[in-house]
Amino acid sequence: MAERVKIAVFISGTGTNLAALLYASRLEGCPYEIALVASNITDAGGLELARAEGIATFTHSHRGHSREEHDAAMEAAVEDAGAQLIVLAGYMRILSDAFVARWQGRILNIHPSLLPKYKGLDTFARAIEAGDSHAGSSVHIVTPELDAGEVLAQIRVAILPGDTPETLAERVKHAEHQLYPRALTDFVARGTDPDALLDKVRGIALALPETHERESHGSPGFRVGTEKSGKYFAHFLNQHHGSQHIAVLVKTDGMDELINLVETQPETYFKPAYYGASGWVGLILNREGVDWNHVGEWLGRSWRSVAPQRITKLLDAADSF
Ligand code: GRF
User: Fold this and answer.
1) Is 113 in the pocket of ligand 1 (CB under 6 A)?
2) How far apart are CA 57 and CA 260, in angstroms?
3) Is 111 a catalytic site residue?
4) Vertex 303, ends 301 and 304: CA angle to 5°?
5) Pick the catalytic residue: 60, 62, 111, 140?
6) Is 102 exposed, middle or buried (0-12, 13-18, 19+ CB in 10 A)?
7) CB distance 142 to 97 below 8 Å
8) Which atom number of ligand 1 is nearest to the Cα of residue 172?
């Protein structure tokens, strides 16, 4: 089996979601393993469980520390443990923007509501009060804005007549324990799934003006301009010619830039077979921590370098306002 993705779980409370994630990870075929459980509460219930199960723990009280100091200590522990993803499971602290930016796309949270409904606290009371038929829980990517990142998965839980916030919370937890391990497993797998990666590239490429998709040498390609005279600005390659990479190829300014990128950032870029000779660089997508904004910037730049002037002129004019 391929190496498992190491995760760090942050908790503040009882850690029942931690328990669910942990026991799921002990089942055959689970693509992640828990390398660290970290908490801001030195006697959080979940820590004892983690220790008993032979998992490294780290605690650092937030009291008397600035948010940045506290986050830095937690981050150092995550790095020491070699974790590639941070999974929040009832972690009752807001992370600093700088921390979230450094771990962009690599922090997950579970929030007990059907987002975008009921961000923040008291979600069960608010759902009951509103007369909703269902409450539920959402797993989402953490962004600087609270409970606002991409929702990866949700589970609905019927609200029963006579439910109180407490009885509802208990049922939602049962549902969460099914949801979180599954959502995390899918998330980990999506980073190496060629179809999921192609979908993502396609979404960005076809959102650029006047673009369409056309196969080129058996691989998906993206062109700008008309069907007849359009030009390729991106190619998607899945482990092409013996390479391990799943990648999108974009146009550099030429060989000097290409060589420089490949030599200085070999974890991000590579020189593809055939295409490399004409200045296309490969952006590696099947790795942890791909920065999709960065991929988007490259696609935009590559698009601009081949787009017909009649389109780019209009855009330049719009930019100058
Ligand atoms: C969960 O209900 C989760 O949705 C919220 O915090 C609670 C954590 O519970 N973010 P536990 O500590 O995992 O039992």
Assistant:
1) no
2) 41
3) yes
4) 65
5) 111
6) middle
7) no
8) 2
The tens digit of pLDDT for each residue in 257-308 reads: 999 999 999 999 999 999 999 999 999 999 877 888 899 999 999 999 999 9
What distance in angstroms lies between residue 120's CA and the mean position of ligand 1's atoms? 13
Query: What are the two backbone dihedrals, phi and then psi, of residue 273, each rounded to the nearest 5 degrees?
Result: -60, 150
Q: Which of 232, 237, 229 is nearest to 214 (CA)?
A: 232
Q: Where are the alpha helices (DSSP H) in the chain?
A: 16-25, 45-52, 67-80, 97-102, 123-129, 165-190, 194-205, 255-264, 292-306, 309-319
Q: Tell me the three state secondary structure of residue 85.
A: strand
Give dist(CA 144, CA 122) in Å, integer.
21
Residue matched to tokens 């062109």: 223
Hunting for tokens 């009882």 — which residue is that? Answer: 14
Q: What is the pLDDT of residue 149?
A: 87
| d(CA 198, ligand 1 centre) in Å | 34
Tokens 């220790």 belong to which residue?
51
Cα gap 270→280, rounded to integer Å:
9
Chain mean pLDDT for the chain:
94
How far is ligand 1, taken at its centre, from the CA of residue 9, in Å?
12
CA–chain centroid gap for 193, Å, is 14
Q: How far apart are CA 115 and CA 98, in angstroms?
A: 24
Q: Tell me, what DSSP letter sits at residue 54? A: T
Residues belonging to the chain? 321
3-state secondary structure of 245: coil
